[in-house]
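In this section we walk through a basic example: taking a raw amino acid sequence and producing a predicted 3D structure, encoded as discrete structure tokens. The instruction is simple. Fold the sequence below.
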Amino acid sequence: MKLDLLIINANIVTVDDNRPQASSIGIYRDRILFVGSDQDAKRYDARKVINATGKTIVPGFNDAHQHMSHFGDSLRRVNLSSPPIESIQDILDAIASRAAEVNPGDWIIGAGYDQNKLYEKRHPLATELDRAAPNNPVMLQHTSGHMMCVNTALIKLARITDCVVPPGGKVVLDQNGRPTGLILEQAQDLISTLYKPHSIAEVAESLRLASTQYLSEGITSCQEAGVGLGLVGHTPVELSAFQNALENNHLEVRVNAMIAQESLHYVEHHASDSADKTLDLGLRTGFGDDWLRISNTKVFADGSLIGRTCAMFEPFANDADPENNGFFQMDVSELRDVVIDSHRAGWQVGVHAIGDRAVSTVLDIYEEALVEHPRIDHRHRIEHAGVVRVEDVTRMARLGVIPVPQARFISELGDGMIDALGSDRVANCYRQKSFLDAGIPLPGSSDRPVVTGAPLLGLHDLVNQKTSSGAPFNPHEALSIEEALTAYTMGSAYAAFDETRKGSVSEGKLADLVVLDHDLRETANDSIADITVRATMVGGKFRYDPSGFSES
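The resulting token sequence is shown next.
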């Protein structure tokens, strides 16, 4: 057989224990048919041969938890990330600048602010946003996605002062009982329903923008963390947007779609909601193909750590409310029913749980589900697993539950997390090494657009464990670069039942590769973030190649 492509003289880090190192790869169509030495490669004839001149090749990076459509959409919003935003005034200036560009009445949407990084250490007020954009509705999405700030125009438009706040949410009031503009968790639906749904074409365009960015960072696969909670709001329509993008060659990375639990459960209560038809059709984890596939169902237990809404056993440190220990986004009995129903129906379940009380509660429910309905190799997940007690690490290992933490939070959000927890609880926060030491597979993920999602930044944080201020976070949780690379490749593949198709440079697997300008293993730990992606291959085709590696 003649190969389509043969790459020789490469430094290949395979992430395959059976062959950790190689120098040649043979590719036929979208699969790897040969991995070995340059001498072995002489046995093969190929239509094209690339001399890699010693460049490093690793498996394609796989982000196990991110929000692709939201990220693509965020590229069109007012960027309020820090840096460059340093103060409330910086936010107001950015909003005023956008107001000068749009028509009166047009929505102005900002994304990515973090009050922990602002000089004032607080959220913008509705009255301040009124002054910046007196003729426009303004919505500022917090970087966590768990809260937003709005101006008076949106407060009036949503009739917030007259409506019932959804369970699991909160509208923050001032001392006179008036909304400050800060809206938490499920109460955000009061606003989001006013600007959804986006059209299929709009979502597909967001996916195109995201794909372009992902390829430049070496991402070849990702898990979309909550189809049905995104820009459209209904699972069938949102999946149609992904299909539309794929058919038009705008979706150039592989996507495993988590289906929001609202789209799967209690059909008897929402028979008119087309989103619930996903369960009616009998679809579950594994349906789809190599490009677009249904993975786990996504359920929310609690909220955000930096937003101080996640469910904790003890109150947050340094909080205006000394009794604030967060809250659940739904009644625990309802959470139990949702998880056990999904488990019984054959789904892999992923529950968003950040606080230690939420994590422990979810493990209780998983254990009950497995006792009532035993199932081998379920791979149920805890999305984020932000604060985990030692005893619950042990329970995860015993139950076969996979945590999906975000190392990227360490540098970008670490200082805020330390402030929220206090020094005595930080050791339990965003564990990495503890999971591996317990024998638990560890995936790599970012939760983008909550933080910048480039995998090389994630590898950097996994290894260095330092906040943006330079403070040590959890040095005892630091990984070796080999362990970090495995997390972002094989770990993420395993968490999605994809380990036989992805995650290593191995014969028979999909030809998804990344070419780097330096060997990760020979790079100083504090320089990992400076490594550059030279080229990205998905399915045997170079889809990002600015320096012409494929013409070597």
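Looking at the output, two observations stand out. The mean pLDDT is 92. The first helix runs from residue 38 to 41. In the next section we compare this with other chains.
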